[in-house]
Structure prediction request, 953 residues.
Amino acid sequence: MAVSMRDLDPAFKGAGQKAGLEIWRIENFNPVLIPQSSYGKFFTGDSYVILKTTASKSGALRHDIHYWLGKDTSQDEAGAAALKTVELDAALGGRAVQYREVQGHETEKLLSYFKPCIIPQEGGIASGFKHVEAEEHKTRLFVCKGKHVVHVKEVPFARSSLNHDDIFILDTESKIFQFNGSNSSIQERAKALEVVQYIKDTYHDGKCEVAAIEDGKLMSDSETGEFWGFFGGFAPLPRKTVNDDDKPADSHPPKLLCVEKGKADPIETDSLTKELLDTNKCYILDCGLEVFAWMGRNTSLDDRKSASRAADELVSVTDRPKSQIIRIIEGFETVMFRSKFDSWPETTPVTMSEDGRGKVAALLKRQGLDVKGLLKADPVKEEPQPYIDCTGHLQVWRVNGQEKILLPATDQSKFYNGDCYIFQYSYPGEDKEEHLIGTWIGNNSVEEERASALAQASKMVESMKFLPSLARIYEGSEPIQFHSILQSFIVYKGGLSDGYKNYIVEKEIPDETYSEDGVALFRIQGSGPDNMQAIQVESVASSLNSSYCYILHSGDTLFTWSGSFTTSDDQELVDRMLDFIKPELQCKPQKEGAESEQFWDLLGGKSEYPSQKIVRDDENDPHLFSCNFSKQWLQAKEIYNFSQDDLMTEDIFILDCHSEIFVWVGQQVDPKSRMQALTIGEKFLEHDFLLEKLSRLAPIYTVMEGSEPAFFTRFFKWESAKSAMLGNSFQRKLTIMKNGGAPPLIKPKRRATVSYGGRSVSVPDKSQRSRSMSVSADHVRVRGRSPAFNALAATFESPKDRNLSTPPPMIRKLYPKSMTPDSANLASKSSAIARLSSSFEPTARENLIPRSVKGSSDTSKSNPETNDKEDSMSSIQEGMQEGEAEDDEGVPVYPYERINTASTDPVEDIDVTKREAYLSSAEFKEKFGMVKSDFYKLPKWKQNKLKMAIQLF
Prediction:
């Protein structure tokens, strides 16, 4: 499209260069930028142009343009707003979606910019109306409609305006009444309360009373009587009369019209296809409620203005005030538009649009204007963050038919692609312990075991009263949270379950289950030591990729292979994974292009292989949908510009993050629908409402209200107190309103200790207790730690104590004043621990220290049977050897050098989860900066944090 400076209004100079809203009012047929203080204040006699600029994750700026027409605006001003919208789009490079908005029939997208509502004021620039803030208050009656965004309309102040189906707000000088029709929903009532709050703040300076009136409530209630007093006393409400606003908008099969020289002529066709649209022309697609004006990329600005006028005339001539006109540029069609066609190509080239955007930017730059916002910004590359504490307690089971087999700690990160697994992870949350239960489904697993895994995991969640989040994960689509929990993840070919073995026998398929003595090739990937994977692939040269490193072994022969595009960080991951796969063998490094013949022989000879790295698409911005599900039928409605307040406790919502989705279930959702949460997520992936090619294998999380994990809440500006409130959504918002706009602080109930297979959280199974160590046949390796733990450990570890293949952790300045280079050298371990422990205030409850540790030596000796019954540490007494020391608490004492996890001469037959109990009182205080009794008053996660810091955990 050719663009000249005469086509660009000076008022649009610099528009759309940063994320946010910009609004112009049409004055004398020209746009005039209004100040931000006036955003959301619309006058019925005016027309406006609204630009919404959004910055995507990739750095690109997206634009939506709306032109709003007040009910009293002149036809000439409305036409000027429509044309100026086309000009603004041209100035932005010709890629914005443009919406025609009519007062009272605004799109939900526009209303989402001005939450909670738009309440137009009488008057306008043409009438010379001047809004006076101090004018006398006028009693007004409003009707509110909508569950997610609220359409507010002023109605005559009369009893005849009321009905049982809607919600009404009566705004008087001293009090605001909300009248809830008996047939209105709880969600509508809750949203209307937001309008009440807006009226209170806007027109009463936040200084008036608020009353909620229930339809049918007895007159004995004083506020109810006061409300009806404004209408001359109580009387039965009249039957609701159907007006134009209540009539559903007409809809009909799409009709395609071609616009040439301002005239729209219909196109006769049996099937709508993309091929009917010519890039050199403009078209109108009339669907009744939606009227689309499609503009080819090679059309002129005059052609586009002509098509815009033709669409306006089509709606006005047919008298369809509710119809929404949406103008779209070729290459940037909306999902709604594409869905009207019987066929639409999966990809549409947009190179021409980028070229046109550059031409506009160059043109404006010659005029001395700042054009940085018109060009696509460089994408910001950030390492994905797990948003989950990685120091918790992990259990993993392999599914075997209808049962599950608990894996030992040494094998809980080793999966087979022919099997299914269930994992349960408990970790310290913001103010309580959090739980995540999930299933991992191997690509070659059998259907029966997939169903068994999902059923068993769901029962585990149900048995814990739906407190844990539930994750469904397929091989190859694992989220960052999963990899960070397991830290070193290995996927072997084949399977160990009976289901897999029976399947290959029935199908007469050769068993490819991994063998340590056979030939195996592993692709190494991940972003760091806390997130690394080894994936077994076919042992052929075509499995190689220049962007990865690999491990190849055959019997006693071991090779590592580094692609030409790999980095030193990639090669470091290979060194780490060798300790898990073949720790006892010496490897022969191979670089791409300099391989030995033996290497190629093991792979069956040379062949071509790719060089492009496997990249998952995580650039899409999240979308929130409200969902209704019934008998395999799913209806989803998108919530624009969403916030935490949009999550209604009576409903189910889906947060679509493209690479993974979350199904959020409100506390007030009925149990039957709650159990279908995972099915709802699967149906959502199947329907792909945004046509964004969602993978059916994308991870699905089900999240219960009140137990939202951090990797869900990070998409919101989250207030935990809101999700912890009791009552329905209307009662909650009413409580918040009466509490001055803040949710009341509710102290969470103390939860009972959750049992894992007969074991409590506080005393996990010995094989599952520690997540800080991984043990192989010949090696003991300190596993990756969270950044906070690394910072602490760096204070205490010395290079000679550290595994040589583990680089020094990055030191973050947790204590800026005390951790300077000079002072760090002088600070002792005990003083550092003291600083850390000083921030931990002991709880008021009883000491949590076991009796055999807490009690005196006399008590421990005199009643060993009682101690054995009450404490799992009674074996300490039985294992005492001659010559062992014993401290004043009745347990054997060993020096720190023999009980820490890095010890070269460790003590045997001790309870490794309570290593600190074997320290003498003096050495305990020196190491921890506190006495044992204070230590055991700390929460479990804080104890573990201290033990981790000095390598006792």
Remarks:
- Residues 186-203 form the longest helix (18 residues).
- The mean pLDDT is 80.
